[in-house]
Amino acid sequence: MPQALLDIRDLAISFRQSHATSRSPNGGYLRALDGISLRVPPRMTLGVVGESGSGKSVTALSILRLLPEPPARIDGGQVLFTSQRDGEAERDLLRCSPQELRRIRGGHIAMIFQEPMTALNPVYTVGDQVGESLRAHQALTRREGLSRAVELLDQVGVPDASRRVHDYPHQLSGGQRQRVMIAMALSCHPELLIADEPTTALDVTTQAQILDLLSRLQQKLGMSMLLISHDLGVIATVCQHVAVMYAGQIVESAPARTLFRRPRHPYTIGLLTALPRLGMARERLREIPGRVPRLSEVAQGCRFADRCPHAQERCRKETPALLDEHDRIAASEAGSQQQLVRCHFPIETSTQRLRAIDAEVVR
Amino acid sequence: MTALSSPQAVDRGDDKSPPLLSVRGLCKHYVVGRQGVFFGPPTLVRAVDDVTFSLRAGENVGLVGESGCGKSTLGRTLLRLIEPTSGEIYIDGIDVRGLRSRELRRLRRHVQMVFQDPFGSLNPRLTVHELLAEPLRVHGLVEPPARGQKEVEAVERLLDNVGLPAESRRRYPHEFSGGQRQRIGIARALAVRPKLIVADEPVSALDVSIQAQIVNLLRDIQERENLTYLFISHDLKVVEHLCERVAVMYLGRIVELAETDALYGAPRHPYTAALLASVVEPPHIAEPGTPLSGAPRRRETPSQAERRRLFLFGDPPSPTSPPLGCPFHPRCPKYAELKQPDLCRSERPVLTMLPAKLGTGPHQVACHFAE
Lengths: 363, 371
Ligand SMILES: Nc1ncnc2c1ncn2[C@@H]1O[C@H](COP(=O)(O)OP(=O)(O)OP(=O)(O)O)[C@@H](O)[C@H]1O
Ligand SMILES: Nc1ncnc2c1ncn2[C@@H]1O[C@H](COP(=O)(O)OP(=O)(O)O)[C@@H](O)[C@H]1O
Ligand code: SF4
Ligand code: SF4
Ligand SMILES: [Mg+2]
Ligand SMILES: [Mg+2]
What we know:
The structure holds two protein chains of two kinds. Chain A has 14 helices and twelve strands. By secondary structure, chain A is an alpha/beta fold. In chain A, the strands form two sheets. Chain A has an eight-stranded mixed β-sheet, with helices on both faces. In chain A, strands 2-1-4-5 form a four-stranded antiparallel β-sheet, covered by helices on one side. In chain A, helix 7 runs parallel beside helix 8. The relative contact order of chain A is 0.13. Chain B contains twelve helices and twelve strands. Chain B is α/β, with parallel strands linked by helices. Classes of the chains: A alpha/beta, B alpha/beta. The interface between A and B is large, with 62 and 57 residues. Bound molecules: adenosine-5'-triphosphate, adenosine-5'-diphosphate, iron/sulfur cluster (2 copies) and magnesium ion (2 copies). The site of one magnesium ion has 3 residues of chain B, from helix 1.
């Protein structure tokens, strides 16, 4: 396997509950992430998809140690980062010194969030802010910083950038603010861009533009990207590889095409069939019964068992492990050998049945 | 499809039976400042601008458009939660604008609203029983005493209607998940047996798995009770699943209105086409039995290149100074394609009925060059 740029192994994180007392079980800590493993190869985009509360943001924030500790507590695992730039060794971000971490945050890994307004300073112009983040990495005068900021804003599609640099964040639309955030993130030439729900607050029209921009920049700059979203459509548009999270765990992980065309975990299948789609007017939606368990409700066995149409005795007793269940046809299509599934009874995808459906779809 | 064969089919106002809701020339303008320092003319936001449409009883109409286009404002003016600036609203023959504040209560029996954020719209200090019994008491729909046998039965019936267990009655809103709170919000709206429900983004805050439950619930209830919906959403996929007709808004105005199949299958306003091209979806699963009833109708999905051609550039313009002529022209792919015709800059297109043509039904469209 080629060296991954980012390799998260068995990451476990808990949060101390605000109402915890000295007699609460586990000292009042609840597990929010349990055994998360993710690999982002160089120049690839990994998508992480899941419903709210599944642990997507906690995963993203933990990579750069941005979680407040306490209430957060890292219970175990590694976040291995191996820069592709010369002379850099593999390092575990969970065990780096604060200076080291700051260097990596500034020069190798950048992050953008759902609500750009909270990450921008309302009292400085966007030109000042983009210029400032450029000057943090390069020796530039304020003037040079500003003119590089104009170039950068132009590159991310802010119209009329030379005039816009003098605007304050509140004078920009949501889409333009997200572009400014992207420009700031790119100012350090990151090897990895972590984007947590970057288009969730935007209209579909603006979302389409931003997704297009992110894919083009990722390819042009040869970056890796970790894209987090609850929206399967967004993930499908941008990502080459996809991991599905449920209640703090990864339940399925595969190349995008395999995951969407031949999902094997009952939850992934449930999500994909619950989704309203264009062209299926007045079709009744498939429901997943029940709701996501709270952290405090997670017990022994499969976390999806209460909602799973295929659940059996064993599912409630034995916690399934994330295993490679790859199927030869699916693998040959996608050019990869892996389809990790956390389920005792992964859904069958027999060759013949799939051929028959493919024929139908083509027709 | 016979419904698509006559142009009258789209404007339900021309039906024999009077429409349940009829809106004519509705405007809501906000004064947000003055041009110049003191005595200049007011700066207006035309949140809703000259909107005319009608709903037949039992119909389910979707209202879509980008953020800020005026969907919520339109929905709220119908109930006079916001006072319209001008125009007519008739609901079941009642002149809504003529009602005095006391008579408004009677209106609220006929028209109810369901909101996006069920938490924000439910009083956290009341039990679910109190939340559901209150509208029943106000409208005298249940025998006293409060919390008596009859009332408990009525509340339990409402809960059952929306798929919640009877014991939920004793609990408080914060003890429920988002999807369950939305069920409570729906039960509360249904309590007074309204004729029309204005639902403002009722499933937008919900996760996919819960969203499907609520979309199905809204549909079941509509069929069961023959309700009329005005369903406001920015999600074109949900609207296609739920609605029979769809109105598309841009900068306070309806720019296209047609039967769902016709609008989605062959949009005739460039803005609608662009909205549809922006929708992202994952590929279809290659598993048998995906749809519950028969094979899904799969329309041609546009290629990425085709979608790029339709992509909109830029954002919606400022509502305080909308572009002259067709307010959509600075972003319109067709305007660019046609080499920027003067007409689009000089004259505002009005919503006009275009007859059916091969492959699509009649549409009301506001575009000089609609085909
Ligand atoms: N009280 C108000 N004063 C001034 N302007 C307002 C007021 N309420 C709404 N507006 C403006 O009216 C326009 C329409 O707003 P509205 O909330 O109806 O949009 P919407 O289509 O529901 O958007 P969203 O999809 O974001 O909910 C916007 O430009 C908004 O800024
Ligand atoms: N600062 C915090 N304190 C306590 N619990 C938290 C905190 N941040 C996140 N959590 C919990 O961790 C879980 C995962 O949250 P998050 O990663 O934000 O989900 P999402 O997948 O929606 O991004 C949730 O149950 C959430 O309540
Ligand atoms: S382990 Fe059992 S309950 Fe869990 S997803 Fe698989 S079949 Fe369903
Ligand atoms: S009138 Fe002109 S600018 Fe407006 S939608 Fe039609 S083609 Fe586009
Ligand atoms: Mg999140
Ligand atoms: Mg709204």
